[in-house]
Amino acid sequence: MNDLGEQYDLREKQLEFNLYNLHQENEKLKYNFNNLEDNYQKLLEKDYEQLDRDYQQLRQDFNEMINENELLKDYNSRMYQQKLQGNEDNGKESFFYIC
What we know:
mainly alpha, rod-shaped, 1 helix
């Protein structure tokens, strides 16, 4: 009976040790999982920040193109007006030569 009691105690200690190891492994897994979640969240935030920076740059580029387009339209309008004015002046001279 003494051997059975010792075997029982030994088996109980082994199981306690295994339970302790499983508990430690479980805690490590929880810790690693939380780290993964934290890193994933940071990655998402970085991606969002990068996307926001990209958007702001695109928005600035767009606004610059709109301004440049407006300047080009103004320039084209002035050139067209000058051309019309030049044609009117040439037309007046032609009219005087005809008379």
